[in-house]
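Hi there,

I know you've been waiting on this one. I reran it after we fixed the sequence typo, so this is the corrected version. Both the input and the resulting structure follow.
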Amino acid sequence: MGIPNGSDLKDLVDGELKTFTVGETIAITQLKHCLEQIIDNGVEFEDSKVFEKLKQTIYVGFTRNNEFVKSKTVNEHNSPNHYQKLAEDYGYISAKIKEAYMSGKELNTITGPNNLLQIRTKASKSATGHYTPLCYNGSQLKDKYMAFYLCADFGKEISNE
């Protein structure tokens, strides 16, 4: 019995639960539902859906063989430096997204300057065998969906603490 799938932004009433395989990136949220905040509203990290997802998170790491490694709760109080780096990376990535949208260029993988947060593709083919393009206001940003991720080194850090 686990947490049921649903459309709520967070898994838990007061935060998020992220299980991950040590050495792999950790998916945060799809980029599509963040585009209005980034492109039209210029929302800062602290007011963003990405922050809302990550403001209190229980990370649970496993090996590739599905063996438990470690868990840790991360929030602004116990890890203020982490959230400062996330905010810097979010701002950098948001500026690149807005720049691509304004210039009509296609998005690619973008990693923030702290190598903590990135966007990259996260897509499955439809029943017709095609990817759904990532579009906003009639402009195609990518030929497939993308998502925000925490880079793999973050999970390694948690596992080694």
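Quick highlight: The radius of gyration is 16 Å.

Best,
R. S.
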